[in-house]
Amino acid sequence: MTFLSKISARTGLAAALLAGSVMTASAFTACQVTDVGGIDDASFNQTAWKGVQDAMAAHDEVEGRFLESQAETDYDSNLNSLIQAGCDVIITVGFLMGDATKSAAESNPDQKFSIVDFAYDPTIPNVLGQVYATDQGAFLAGYLAAGMSETGVLGTFGGINIPPVTAFMDGFVHGVNYYNSEKGTDVQVLGWNPESREGLFTGNFDSLDDGRAFAQNLYDEGADIVMPVAGPVGLGSATLAAEIGTDELKIIGVDADQTQTDPENADVYLTSVLKRMDSTVTQVIEMAMEGSFEGGLIVGTLENEGVGLAGYGAFEDSVPDELRAEIEAVKAGIIDGSIEVGM
Amino acid sequence: MTERDDLKGVNERMRALLARTTHGRDDFEDLVIVPLFAVVVALICGALIMLATAVDLPTIGRSFVALAVGSVGSLSAWSETLTSAIPLVLAGLGLGLGFRAGLFNIGAEGQLLMGGLAAVMAGFALEGLPMVIHLPLTLLIGASVGAAYAAIAGILKATTGAHEVISTIMLNLISFELLNWLLRQPWVQREGRSDPISKSVPDTAALPKLLDFIDPNLRLHAGLFVMLVAVFIVWWLLFRSKLGFAFRASGENPSAANYAGMRAPLIIVLAMATAGALAGLAGANQITGVLGRASPGFSAGIGFDAIAVALLGRSHPVGILFAGILFGGLEAGGRQMQVDAGVSIDLISIIQALIIVFIAAPLLVRAIFPWGFRRPRNGKKGGAA
Is residue A86 located within the same domain as residue A192? Predict the structure, then answer.
């Protein structure tokens, strides 16, 4: 079946009307709906979009399109627009899009969907979920931060209290606790309590001002390393760190290697907890191209390098060799199962 | 001869007098031509902005084609345009009514949130009722709560003189936080979720989809009829009822209205409450027709966009209907623009803002487009706008 006939069979009248304006010579269209925060958020959405770009670079026939969500209420309409545009695979980015993706997938059973950060139970035959064991990566970051802190106080805050965000915060706290139990220290983490599931949340994924204010509050409480888990909100925290100096405040990036995505303030990032959405997104596109796509789940872990730690950036020389070695050991321990992240 | 000239002079003066009392051509210019040109100028400025941000000409062309196709170019485009227009028109009607009564209500966003929140609660709390009762009741509860919430600002103004701009802005902020708090309460929050999201509205309280027999992706819902009925009711209320006359009179000249025996405080509260009811209905309509549940920020700025819609529609119900459809079309077309041409959807917000700038400056529009407007005669009509 040719691509065109597939499209018109799928969406009927509307696609036929649109076909003239939308269709180009490309043989494969990969579309992405970003979450609020924008495609250039230097973190979450941008990393997922990089996956499409990588696929475009690797395969000439792939064409990528995206649609930014400006509010949570846009999800349905954005999905609709892309369904009408005749995409071969639609990738939705973000846990909050779970409901919208599900209903779109159910009313369009022939359209391939993939969602970042959401796992359906039971699985939907035309949706492939991409989830990440980010608590493993954040565990390492917590261990590192505990080893680097001078004040013995660390901070973290999130965007919204949802599992993909709190997974980072859980891992971070557990990593610090592990450091404490190994070294007999008492490094504290402000901003998240894994038991009560409560902590600091900005309530949004787009206010840089909030990022600055929350980091300022944590700094005022003594924190000298802060991990913001809220997409572009963290850029505000990085600006603050750049102003008051990295001796006073360092930032741990999330999702992407933020020394690369936020080059202006590259020297404030101690490291970044990588969530390799780009590699799983590329993988999904390739699966859809080869025809091996089926509904289910891809899980990124430390072991398959779906999550991990970026380099130490500007702190390459100040992280002690001993600590580096310990982190490598902890990483190996998580992979072979001898260290349990959730303890 | 001279008698005739006199007569002619008298006739002319009579005509001038009549022209001052009846709104004819001037009204038409203000109501139709200025908004129309404002839209055109804003679109041209949008193209210039794209040029300035290094978008090449073919892409600009493609983006405007996509804007047109995505807003009116297919059945699905119309469905999306109208779906976006419905809450804008409903909330805009309320705001326009407030403007007519001299109340600058900035609180539609909060009233919309409260109305929607009430509707979602009524939706899941009254589960089991038959649809003929459940759906109207849900919408009614949404409208009533919106009215009550707006009436707070009205009462504050009527009794203490607190300015409605300030109090409605503050009420907006309160409603945002109230929503965030309520969405975390166990009797509102959906089971098994730790993020703030409400339970779903059952089907008996959902506005039925109108076109899903053609294609399940068409989202247009029965709120369309709610909107049209509301346009008619507001028109009747404003221009055919005693209450509407009182609204308009106190808006045009509060002291005159007062001396004519209209009770200003009561009118302020009633006007605010009516405006709030319409905004609340817009929220209830979003919940029961589109979203099916409440989440933080589900109002998505509709209450603020509706201010623009009311201004563009010149606070006239029919004008607001068209302005709302235009804004709905811009939103739907803007998505298509991003998909097809890769031009940022933010450009749509810029175009919307520019439209308002030009609407707010009718003299500027008249200066840019001297044709299309009647020339001021003998300098008498200069500045009539």
Answer: no
8 A C-beta contact, residue B187 and residue B199: no
| Within a domain: B31 | no
B89 closest CA partner among B303, B276, B374: B303
SS3 A304: coil
CB A108 within 8 A of CB A10: yes
Q: Could you tell me if residue B169 is inside a domain? A: yes
Chain-chain contact of A161 with B196 (C-beta, under 8 angstroms): yes
* Whether residue B8 has pLDDT greater than 80: no
Total CB pairs under 8 A between chain A and B = 106
Q: Could you say which residues from 52 to 81 on chain B have a Cβ atom under 8 Å away from some Cβ of chain A?
A: 65-66, 69-70, 73-77, 80
Inter-residue contact A42 to A75 (CB < 8 Å): no
Question: How is residue B347 written in tokens?
Answer: 């450009």
Contact between A263 and A95 (Cβ < 8 Å): no
All residues of chain B having their beta carbon less than 8 Å from the beta carbon of residue A82 are: 339
- How confident is the model at residue B375, as a pLDDT? 58
pLDDT for B255 beyond 90: no
In a domain, B252, yes or no: yes
The confidence score (pLDDT) of residue A92 equals: 92
Chain A residues inside the 8 Å CB shell of B296: 72, 160, 203
A203 in reach of chain B (CB within 8 A): yes
Q: Are residues A201 and A294 in the same domain?
A: no
Inform me whether the C-beta atom of residue A31 falls under 8 Å from chain B C-beta atoms: yes
Q: Which residue is closest to B294 within chain A, CA to CA?
A: A73
**A198 lies in which domain range?**
134-274+309-336
State the average pLDDT for chain A. 85
Tell me which H or E stretch contains A228: strand A225-229
- What is d(CA B358, CA A134) in angstroms, rounded to the nearest whole number? 50
B80 contacts in chain A (CB < 8 Å) = 77, 80-81
Interface confidence, given as ipTM, is: 0.72
Q: Residue A314 carries which DSSP code?
A: G
Residues A207 and A192 in one domain: yes
Residue type, B35: P
Q: DSSP per residue over B87-104, as a string?
A: HHHHHHHHHHHHHHTT--
Count of structural domains within chain A: 2
What distance in Å separates residue A81's CA from the closest CA in chain B? Answer: 7
Question: In whole angstroms, what is the distance from residue B376 CA to residue B354 CA?
Answer: 26
Note whether A102 contacts B: Cβ–Cβ < 8 A: no
Angle between helices B346-360 and B317-341 (to 10 degrees): 150
CB contacts under 8 A, A 104-163 vs B, are 104, 107-108, 160-163
Q: B228: domain range?
A: 87-208+217-327
User: Which range among A60-69, A149-158, B24-33, B194-203 shows the weakest confidence by mean pLDDT?
Assistant: B24-33
Rounded distance between C-alpha atoms, residue A173 and residue A196, angstroms: 13
Q: Give the residue-averaged pLDDT of B362-368.
A: 77
Tell whether A19 lies on the interface with B, counting CB pairs under 8 A: no
Exposed (0-12), middle (13-18) or buried (19+): which is B182, by Cβ within 10 Å?
middle
Which of A65, A73, A160 has its CB closest to that of B339? A65
Which residues, 6+ apart, have CB-to-CB distance to A160 below 8 Å? A96, A201, A203, A204, A205, B195, B196, B296
